[in-house]
Design brief:
The chain is α+β, with helices and mostly antiparallel strands. Helix content is 30%, strand content 22%. Helix 3 packs across helix 4.
Length: 137
Protein backbone atom coordinates (compact mmCIF):
# COMPACT_ATOMS: atom_id res chain seq x y z
CA UNK A 1 0.00 0.00 0.00
CA UNK A 2 1.42 3.40 -0.93
CA UNK A 3 1.49 6.39 1.44
CA UNK A 4 -1.53 8.06 -0.17
CA UNK A 5 -3.70 4.97 0.32
CA UNK A 6 -2.43 4.53 3.86
CA UNK A 7 -3.22 8.12 4.84
CA UNK A 8 -6.70 7.94 3.30
CA UNK A 9 -7.38 4.69 5.17
CA UNK A 10 -6.01 5.87 8.54
CA UNK A 11 -7.64 9.32 8.54
CA UNK A 12 -11.41 8.80 8.66
CA UNK A 13 -13.67 11.13 6.74
CA UNK A 14 -13.49 12.72 3.31
CA UNK A 15 -10.05 13.26 1.88
CA UNK A 16 -8.03 13.83 -1.26
CA UNK A 17 -4.58 12.27 -0.95
CA UNK A 18 -2.83 11.94 -4.27
CA UNK A 19 0.45 12.56 -6.09
CA UNK A 20 0.23 13.45 -9.78
CA UNK A 21 3.14 13.09 -12.20
CA UNK A 22 2.60 16.60 -13.53
CA UNK A 23 4.00 19.97 -12.53
CA UNK A 24 1.58 22.78 -11.69
CA UNK A 25 2.98 26.25 -12.26
CA UNK A 26 0.67 27.99 -9.79
CA UNK A 27 -1.16 26.98 -6.62
CA UNK A 28 -4.49 27.70 -8.35
CA UNK A 29 -3.60 25.13 -11.03
CA UNK A 30 -2.66 22.60 -8.36
CA UNK A 31 -5.91 23.16 -6.46
CA UNK A 32 -7.93 22.65 -9.64
CA UNK A 33 -6.14 19.33 -10.32
CA UNK A 34 -7.53 17.96 -7.05
CA UNK A 35 -11.02 19.47 -7.15
CA UNK A 36 -10.31 22.25 -4.64
CA UNK A 37 -11.38 25.87 -5.06
CA UNK A 38 -8.93 27.67 -7.31
CA UNK A 39 -9.23 31.22 -5.99
CA UNK A 40 -5.65 32.48 -5.45
CA UNK A 41 -6.38 34.20 -2.13
CA UNK A 42 -7.49 30.87 -0.62
CA UNK A 43 -3.91 29.57 -0.23
CA UNK A 44 -0.65 30.87 1.14
CA UNK A 45 2.85 29.48 1.00
CA UNK A 46 4.45 27.85 4.03
CA UNK A 47 7.82 26.19 4.56
CA UNK A 48 8.50 22.46 4.86
CA UNK A 49 8.52 22.53 8.67
CA UNK A 50 5.12 24.25 8.80
CA UNK A 51 3.76 21.84 6.17
CA UNK A 52 4.83 18.88 8.29
CA UNK A 53 3.29 20.37 11.46
CA UNK A 54 0.02 21.25 9.78
CA UNK A 55 -0.30 17.90 8.04
CA UNK A 56 0.38 16.00 11.27
CA UNK A 57 -2.23 18.12 13.09
CA UNK A 58 -5.01 17.57 10.53
CA UNK A 59 -4.22 13.86 10.41
CA UNK A 60 -4.41 13.59 14.17
CA UNK A 61 -7.53 15.68 14.83
CA UNK A 62 -11.03 16.24 13.54
CA UNK A 63 -10.94 19.91 12.53
CA UNK A 64 -14.60 20.60 13.30
CA UNK A 65 -14.51 19.33 16.88
CA UNK A 66 -10.86 18.76 17.76
CA UNK A 67 -11.47 15.08 18.56
CA UNK A 68 -8.50 12.76 18.27
CA UNK A 69 -8.57 10.53 15.17
CA UNK A 70 -5.21 8.82 15.64
CA UNK A 71 -2.17 8.88 17.89
CA UNK A 72 0.13 11.88 17.43
CA UNK A 73 3.11 9.61 16.68
CA UNK A 74 1.15 7.90 13.88
CA UNK A 75 0.09 11.25 12.41
CA UNK A 76 3.67 12.54 12.48
CA UNK A 77 4.98 9.37 10.86
CA UNK A 78 2.41 9.60 8.04
CA UNK A 79 3.06 13.31 7.49
CA UNK A 80 6.83 12.75 7.36
CA UNK A 81 6.51 9.87 4.93
CA UNK A 82 4.20 11.83 2.61
CA UNK A 83 6.43 14.92 2.53
CA UNK A 84 9.75 13.07 2.40
CA UNK A 85 9.33 12.35 -1.31
CA UNK A 86 9.48 16.06 -2.14
CA UNK A 87 12.31 17.14 0.14
CA UNK A 88 14.99 17.21 -2.57
CA UNK A 89 12.84 18.55 -5.40
CA UNK A 90 12.72 22.22 -4.38
CA UNK A 91 9.15 21.81 -3.23
CA UNK A 92 6.80 24.66 -2.48
CA UNK A 93 4.04 24.05 0.08
CA UNK A 94 0.64 25.73 0.35
CA UNK A 95 -2.28 25.58 2.74
CA UNK A 96 -5.47 27.45 3.58
CA UNK A 97 -5.30 27.36 7.38
CA UNK A 98 -3.19 27.75 10.47
CA UNK A 99 -4.04 24.40 12.11
CA UNK A 100 -1.08 23.24 14.16
CA UNK A 101 0.86 26.42 13.34
CA UNK A 102 1.74 29.49 15.38
CA UNK A 103 -1.00 32.14 15.50
CA UNK A 104 1.03 34.42 13.21
CA UNK A 105 -0.08 32.33 10.22
CA UNK A 106 -3.20 33.31 8.30
CA UNK A 107 -6.49 31.92 9.59
CA UNK A 108 -8.66 29.43 7.70
CA UNK A 109 -10.22 30.12 4.28
CA UNK A 110 -12.44 27.41 2.74
CA UNK A 111 -11.12 25.37 -0.20
CA UNK A 112 -14.17 23.07 -0.50
CA UNK A 113 -17.90 23.12 0.22
CA UNK A 114 -17.41 21.17 3.48
CA UNK A 115 -17.87 22.74 6.90
CA UNK A 116 -14.12 22.87 7.37
CA UNK A 117 -11.15 21.66 5.37
CA UNK A 118 -7.40 21.90 5.30
CA UNK A 119 -4.28 20.20 4.13
CA UNK A 120 -1.16 20.73 2.10
CA UNK A 121 -0.62 21.21 -1.61
CA UNK A 122 2.92 20.45 -2.78
CA UNK A 123 4.31 21.81 -6.04
CA UNK A 124 7.61 20.65 -7.54
CA UNK A 125 9.10 20.76 -11.02
CA UNK A 126 7.98 17.14 -11.58
CA UNK A 127 5.02 16.45 -9.26
CA UNK A 128 1.94 18.01 -7.77
CA UNK A 129 0.70 16.46 -4.54
CA UNK A 130 -2.29 16.98 -2.30
CA UNK A 131 -3.12 15.78 1.19
CA UNK A 132 -6.44 17.48 1.94
CA UNK A 133 -9.10 16.62 4.50
CA UNK A 134 -12.71 17.68 4.91
CA UNK A 135 -14.72 17.52 8.14
CA UNK A 136 -18.39 18.32 8.71
CA UNK A 137 -20.16 19.08 11.97
Amino acid sequence: MDICERIARERRGASVVEIKQIAAARVEDAARLFGLFDKPDTYYEIDATAARSLLAWVLEKDMAGGLSLMRRATAERLANRFLLAFQTEGARYYTNSNFGLPAAYVAWCPATDCTIDSGVLVLTSRHTACAWFMDDD
